[in-house]
Each structure stands twice: as C-alpha cells, then as structure tokens.
Write a structure and sequence with these properties.
Layout lengths: L1 H10 L3 H31 L19 H21 L9 E6 L5 H12 L3 E5 L13 H8 L5 E6 L4 H8 L4 E6 L5 H15 L6 E5 L6 H10 L5 E5 L8 H13 L6 E4 L11 E4 L10 H7 L18 E3 L20 H19 L3
Parallel strand pairs: 1-2, 1-3, 3-4, 5-6, 5-8, 6-7, 8-9
Helix pairs in contact: 3-7, 3-11, 4-11, 5-6, 7-8, 7-11, 8-9
C-alpha cells in the first residue's frame, strides 16, 4: 500500500518535480547503501583470512600453503587499493601499538604506514629507554598495559621467544616483528609477495641465501615458509655463519611431507650456484650478534655483491635484501633492473595491511 500511494503521488506531480524527486530518492538510497556495500566489499576481500581474526602472528609455521597464498592475494588487493585510493577506511576506529625494543626503520615505519593507510591510528613506542621498561617493567606488564589502549600490538625484541611471551600475557593480537635470532614472519611473507610479484611464480625456483644465515631471523623464517613450495634452497655462508641445523631439519621435514626431499644444499662459494639462481637473497653480517669484534671483522666482507658478480647470473634473476645493508651489496647494483630490494621494502606495507586487517577482524 505504501508503494501504491507513493506511485500515485509521483504520478500526480509535474514532470520536472517527478524528475527531481526521483534523483533525490536515488541519492538517498545510495547514501544509505554505500556504507553497507563497503562493509560487504571489505568482508569479501578478507574472507579467505577470516580464520586470522583475533589471532597472533608469531611464526610462519602457523601458516599452511593455502593460507600463505591467501595473504598474498589480499596483499595484492591492498596494493591496488592504495594506488587507487591512497587511504582506506577499513580499520577506522582501531588503534595499533608498535613496541620496539630494537632499532628499526622499515619494519616499524611500514607497520605504522599500513595502519594509517587502513584508516586506523598508532601508538608508537620506539624508544623503550624512555618508557617504563627503563625502570625495570617486565614485558608481561608492558603488554597488559598497552592492550588496555589498543586493538593489536606489534613487537620487536632482542630475545628469541619474546613474541610468544607477549602473546601469552596479552589478550589482543600480537604480531612478531622479530624476536632475536628467532623469526620474522611478516618479513618472510613480504619476501614471498615480492618473489611472486617479480617472477610471477614461486614453485620451481632456485633461491640462494647469502651471508649471515646463523643469526639472520629473516632467512630462518623465509626458508621455513619456502618449504611449503616446490623450490630448491641453496645456503651460501662462511663456516661460522651456516644455517642452523634445527632450521634445516624443520625445512627438510616439511619438504619430505610434501614429496620434495633433498632440495637444500650448502656452499662456501657463491659461484657454485650463481648460474642456477632465480632469487639471490643477501643478508648483512650482523655485528650486534657477535660477542667478539675480531670474529665479526673476520667474516664481515665474506660476500660482497657487485655489478661484476651479476655478470654470471640469469638476466631475469632478482636480488633481494631485507635491509639495512652495510657493504654486502655495492651501490652500483641499485641501477640494475634485477635489484628488487627497494620494491621489496614497499611490498612490506601491503602485506602488513593484509595481516592487520585480518587480525583486527575485517
């Protein structure tokens, strides 16, 4: 009856007035339906990551291959959305704390940028020396306080296992941004996103990791998550900085379970695998992990990638680095189109947008 009355009322109006009324009705409908459509659109984008709502991101080992691929798919959507719109409103009203006990440039700023790009806000704590930590406050107490103000917490800590400790203490999602020589899961995921973006695939590739494989949490996480794919892993390092046995055992176990055994090899000379390499992942020798300066001096220049190094490499190979670099990649390499490390850095924001959106419940 309401529709019939409205129809009769419209028909009794002059044509110009009917047109004006029709436009007004459509405008009101769009105004009312647009927020609903946006919410539905967000849920469709993140539907494959709905299982991460309220979850901690502590290790790459918590992800299956299908879940990794879902993260990469959402990250790709985030990249397109940011390029088109700049700032989204997906996490409007949400607050993120970034708690860094170690120096950081890319990880801290990309998490902050990711949250801001999603429309949220950030409480940054990057100088713990000026916080209550300097007074002796425990990590557990710090987390319990921060969760009172925020919806998720990103933490970087020099102690392996600190992220797990934070998650045990807290009730909001904890995202591990690096725990000592342990893991750096969000870095590994952005590395995979970079490989897929640059080369169009992950399966079938030869990935060569070069440098400090003992202390490099980035390569620890990356090797574990690459084990989910049909890849060959080559480890190039000095004897004293070899990939830890426990990491290789974990990788081998996953590869065996997927029917790809014997895909890891160790080398002292890069030349042994350079021609095979599709992805060269270079890491710096981490001075802060050495107890004796002379030990660091003895290996710091073990591998230096220059333009001459790349002469023997594939033309479509990519060079990656988690950054910062010291002198392990010459500046002259930056102009080579195979140098992907600055594009890799940008990709960190899109992957972290995907993860933040997922854990905060989009």
């Amino acid at each position: 009856w309401g529709l019939r009355i409205a129809s009769l009322a419209m028909n009794s109006m002059p044509l110009s007035l009917r047109q004006t009324a029709t436009v007004a009705i459509f405008a009101s409908a769009i105004t009312l339906l647009y927020p609903v459509a946006c919410r539905l659109g967000r849920k469709l984008v993140f539907r494959k990551l709905k299982h991460l709502k309220g979850q901690d991101i502590l290790s790459v080992r918590q992800f299956s291959r299908e879940e990794v691929e879902a993260v990469l798919e959402v990250a790709k959507h985030m990249k397109h959305a940011v390029k088109k719109q700049g700032v989204l409103k997906y996490l409007e009203g949400k607050v993120l704390a970034t708690l860094f006990y170690e120096p950081s440039t890319r990880t801290s700023s990309s998490f902050v940028a990711a949250m801001l790009r999603l429309g949220g806000r950030v409480v940054p704590i990057h100088e713990v020396s000026s916080s209550s930590v300097a007074k002796g406050e425990t990590l557990s107490d710090t987390i319990k306080c921060l969760q009172s103000y925020t919806d998720a917490i990103v933490i970087r800590h020099p102690k392996m296992g600190a992220a797990r400790e934070a998650a045990d203490a807290g009730s909001v999602p904890i995202l591990n941004a690096g725990d000592g020589v342990g893991e750096h899961p969000t870095q590994a995921l952005l590395d995979l996103f970079t490989i897929q973006s640059e080369l169009g695939r992950i399966d079938g590739l030869h990935v060569t990791m070069v440098g400090d494989l003992k202390n490099g949490r980035t390569v620890h996480s990356l090797s574990k998550v690459l084990a989910l794919f049909n890849v060959h892993l080559h480890y190039v390092s000095p004897e004293s900085l070899r990939m830890p046995f426990e990491i290789k055992d974990q990788v081998e176990s996953v590869m065996n379970s997927r029917g790809f055994p014997g895909r890891q090899s160790e080398h002292r000379r890069l030349e042994e695998v350079l021609a095979l390499t599709d992805v060269m992942y270079v890491t710096r020798v981490q001075k802060e992990r050495f107890e004796r300066a002379e030990d660091y001096e003895g290996v710091k220049d073990a591998y230096v990638i220059t333009s001459d190094t790349l002469i023997g490499a594939k033309t479509d190979m990519i060079v990656m680095h988690p950054l910062p670099r010291v002198n392990e990649i010459a500046v002259s390499v930056d102009s080579d189109p195979r140098a992907a490390y600055f594009r890799q850095m940008e990709n960190g924001m899109y992957v972290r947008m995907a993860l933040l959106g997922a854990v905060c419940g989009l």
